[in-house]
Each structure stands twice: as C-alpha cells, then as structure tokens.
C-alpha cells in the first residue's frame, strides 16, 4: 500500500508587503483616530463607513503612475464574473456612495471616513500594501471656502495630535494656476501636458536646472543614464520655471509672482484669485502663514485635481537610517476634484477633501516623543488553588468594576514562578496573591511589580530602596491598595 503523502505545513509568515500590529501600536492608532474624528466632528462632518470592496468599474483608474486599469489594486472576479477589488483609497468609494444615495443625502454632504486601504504596489521600507487613511470631504460645495475650511481643519488636527506650530506647515497650490502656465507655454497636446506635469513633479529632486533640462532635450540622471526631455524650446520652459520659483516670503508676494507666471491666461488668473480668496478666508479665522502658506511647489498628482491642492508637511528634522539629518516630510494631502462623481451621474458635482496618512503621523509622533514606549499591562490575579477559581474571578470583577484593567491567570497554576513570569511579560504593574493561609486570615498580598523590576536593575536606587515591593492588606482593601500603587506610576 502506497504511503500517504503528508501535506506540507503552511509557513507562518506575513504576506510580502503586509505586517501585524500588536497592543501598543493598535492602541496608539485608535487614540489618534479618535482625536482626529473629534476635530472632524467639531467641524460638522458626519461619519461614513463604506464597504472595503468595490467593483473595479466603480473604483475607476485614479492611482498615480499606473497605466493598466487594474494595476495597483487587489482584484478578482466574483461568481457572476464581475471584477471586484479592495479599495485603494477612501475617496473613490465616496463618489460611488454619493452617486448612489444622493437623493437621501444633504447637499453639501460633509463626511469623514477612517479605515484600511490596499494597494498592490511594490513594498519597500516603511511602505506597506495595507495602511490606514483618515479622510474628510465636502461634496456639493463649489466655493473655495470649502477648501479653506479643509486646510484649517487639517491644521487643527495636527495641533490636537501634539505637533506644535513651527513643526508643520500646510502648503496650498491650485491646478488652475498650472493650467494657466501650460497655456502661457503654448502647450495644448494632452501627452505633452502630461510630460510637463511629470517634470514639474521632479522639481524637488532635480531643482531648477534639472527642470530646464528635462523640459528641453533631457539630462543625465545620477546613475549616468540619459533621460529624454519634453523637447520644448528654452523660451517655452520659462513660464514653468517662473511658476516653480515664485514662492516668496509672504503670501501676497507669492500671488504677485504667480500672476506674472500665468501671463494673460484667464484660467491661470482664476486660479490665482482662488488662492488669494483662500488666504483671505484663512487669515480671517486666524490661520496665518505660520500655519498655512501658498506654495507653487505642491504638485500632488495634479492630473487628479481640478482646483486647489494642499499638503501638510512636518518641518522638524529627523535622522535617517544612515544618521543623516532630513525633514520628516508630508503626512497629509488633498484638494478639489470636481469631476469624480460625474463618472456616475454625468453631472459635475464639486468636491474637495483631505486624507491623513495615519501610519506616517504615528511615526512622526514617535520621533517627537509624543507617543511610544511601552503600554502598562493588566493587574494579574494569580491562582494558588484551582478549586478556588471563583474567589479569584470575584477579585478580578471588583477591580474591573472600579475601572482597573485586570485578569486572572488562566494557564497551568502549578508553577507559581511561571505566573510571575507571565505577569512580567504582560508588563503588569501589580500581581495579587491569595493562598490558603491568606484566605483563612482574610488578607491578600499585593505585589508591586514595577518597583520589583527597578530594584532588580539597581537595588541601591535611593528613591526606591526604602519602599516595600509587597503589601499585605485586608481582603476588603484590595481595590483601594491596587489603585494606590497604580496612582504612583500614573
């Protein structure tokens, strides 16, 4: 009889580009989302939780730098051979939701949404295929007052999360201004316009000289490879260079420089006027250039947007993996996208919104020391006699009812040392002990595990050595004594 071949055991490993999140990380994210939701709610936005799965048709093609319709998303065919996909952002689902329920929703419709999104892209350091976004959008408001409000709200979110003024800036630009620049250049061909947009997007990396080369014949990159240019004459490139270098010391001076860059273009002038109106509206609310500035270098995949675009950048320095100083960079962005709902309804519906990169912001707060470290675990009630489990559960119930995080040890209680090792691994601040002798005398032992750990590190610490690490108290004082110890380390 042939020997039955065993199936190989599956590998216990996270899929490439994904990761697992544990206790403290999950708690920190939840607290951040709660704080941001509080700001969104205060501004009058309503929560929306849409499906994590959409039809590929509904999602459309909006991922940047992707040529094939389904590239960049996790897609499959269902039993009816319809193509489905995991959402790659929270904006495309909003367009579908609004188009589907528009007769029942107020106009404008103001919603915020938070949750994971998935992108089938090449992973890298700090770049995962699943990550969290935290969005707020206004659908149905054509006024740039809606864009200005989003920028103010974004500024408030950063400050609520503990990023002070001076450590961030919200930068604002307008797609219409760039359209005016293209018009001033005499560029009307869609393919050539796309090439110019891609070149503008490289300004931060190659600088003014590099942009001039790429708009012209081309240039050698850092690896020595030659990159073909757009093929524009030098005089055609001037409006782009003027646009990219028009940032000045004040919003007013920047606006004047942008007016020069767009020349006689009507759409360009309209974009500059919108930026001026936004600056005025923000200043009236107390949001000056110490928080929000006009900056022509903001690009944000301009092919997606139809008007104002904005980006929140953290300006403090961090050390990279090689120990070099660099700025932390962008943590949020958004803008006006008036054509998105039109895909469903055939009618233009104005919309503007922002998306906060939750994982990026969490990393920033850790860099600033605003969050991080270790999270305190639960009080552990040890088990000295399995037959008395009801007594131990009663203790835990009293602690929980007093608002204290607590659990009973549910492993094998034979080895008491293993129970304390478990409590240490759980980062427990306190262990509760009640053996047969304590039960007869009506007392419990309360062990201060934090103090015990510090004494184990250095028994000569003056601030710790005279404090007892274990207390015997009446059973009725269990909750009171545990709370006293917890308060010492609050």
From TrEMBL:
EC number(s) reported in the record: 6.1.1.21
A GO MF term: ATP binding
Annotated keywords: Aminoacyl-tRNA synthetase, ATP-binding, Cytoplasm, Ligase, Nucleotide-binding, Protein biosynthesis
Source organism superkingdom: Bacteria
Primary location recorded for the protein, binned into one broad class: cytoplasm
Compartment(s) where it occurs, according to its Swiss-Prot or TrEMBL record: Cytoplasm
GO cellular component: cytoplasm
Coiled-coil ranges from the UniProt annotation: none
Aminoacyl-transfer RNA synthetases class-II family profile domain boundaries: 29-378
Any Pfam family: HGTP_anticodon
Gene3D superfamilies in the record: Anticodon-binding domain, Bira Bifunctional Protein, Domain 2
Positions bound to L-histidine: 89-91, 119, 133, 137, 300, 304-305
GO biological process, one term: histidyl-tRNA aminoacylation
Reaction equations catalysed: tRNA(His) + L-histidine + ATP = L-histidyl-tRNA(His) + AMP + diphosphate + H(+)
UniProt similarity note: Belongs to the class-II aminoacyl-tRNA synthetase family.
HAMAP family recorded: His_tRNA_synth (MF_00127)
Quaternary structure (record): Homodimer.
Record-given protein name: Histidine--tRNA ligase
Organism (species): Sagittula marina
Gene giving rise to this polypeptide: hisS
């Amino acid at each position: 009889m042939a020997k039955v071949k065993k199936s190989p055991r599956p590998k216990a490993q996270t899929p490439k580009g994904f990761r697992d999140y544990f206790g403290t990380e999950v708690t920190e994210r939840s607290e951040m989302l709660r704080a941001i939701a509080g700001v969104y709610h205060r501004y009058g936005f309503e929560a929306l939780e849409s499906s994590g799965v959409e039809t590929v048709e509904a999602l459309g093609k909006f991922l940047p730098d992707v040529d094939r319709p389904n590239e960049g998303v996790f897609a499959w065919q269902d039993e009816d051979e319809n193509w489905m996909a995991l959402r790659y952002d929270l904006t495309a689902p909003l367009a579908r939701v609004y188009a589907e329920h528009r007769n029942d929703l107020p106009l404008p419709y103001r919603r915020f949404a938070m949750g994971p999104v998935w992108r089938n892209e090449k992973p890298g350091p700090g770049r995962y295929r699943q990550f969290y976004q935290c969005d707020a959008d206004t659908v149905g408001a054509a006024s740039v007052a809606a864009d200005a409000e989003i920028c103010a709200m974004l500024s408030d979110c950063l400050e609520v999360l503990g990023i002070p003024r001076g450590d961030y800036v919200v930068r604002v630009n307008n797609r219409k201004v760039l359209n005016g620049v293209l018009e001033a250049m005499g560029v009307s061909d869609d393919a050539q316009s796309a090439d110019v947009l891609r070149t503008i997007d490289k300004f931060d990396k190659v600088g003014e000289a590099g942009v001039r080369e790429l708009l012209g014949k081309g240039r050698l990159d850092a690896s020595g490879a030659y990159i073909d240019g757009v093929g524009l004459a030098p005089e055609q490139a001037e409006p782009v260079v003027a646009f990219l270098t028009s940032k000045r010391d004040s919003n007013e001076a920047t606006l004047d420089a942008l007016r020069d860059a767009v020349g006689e273009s009507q759409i360009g002038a309209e974009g500059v006027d919108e930026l001026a109106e936004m600056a005025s509206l923000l200043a009236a609310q107390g949001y000056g250039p110490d928080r929000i500035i006009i900056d022509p270098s903001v690009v944000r995949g301009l092919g997606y947007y139809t008007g104002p675009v904005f980006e929140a950048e953290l300006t403090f320095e961090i050390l990279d993996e090689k120990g070099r100083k660099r700025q932390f960079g962008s943590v949020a962005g958004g803008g006006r996208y008036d054509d998105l709902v039109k895909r469903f309804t055939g009618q233009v519906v104005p919309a503007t919104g922002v998306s906060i990169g939750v994982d990026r912001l969490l990393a920033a707060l850790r860099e600033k020391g605003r969050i991080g470290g270790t999270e305190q675990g639960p009080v552990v009630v040890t088990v000295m006699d399995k037959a008395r489990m009801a007594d131990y559960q009663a203790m835990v119930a009293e602690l929980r009812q007093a608002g204290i995080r607590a659990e009973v040890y549910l492993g094998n209680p034979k080895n008491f040392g293993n129970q304390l090792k478990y409590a240490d691994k759980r980062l427990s601040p306190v262990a509760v002990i009640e053996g047969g002798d304590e039960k007869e005398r009506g007392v419990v032992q309360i062990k201060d595990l934090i103090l015990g750990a510090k004494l184990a590190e250095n028994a000569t610490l003056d601030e710790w050595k005279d404090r007892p690490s274990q207390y015997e108290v009446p059973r009725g004082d269990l909750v009171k004594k545990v709370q006293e110890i917890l308060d010492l380390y609050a």
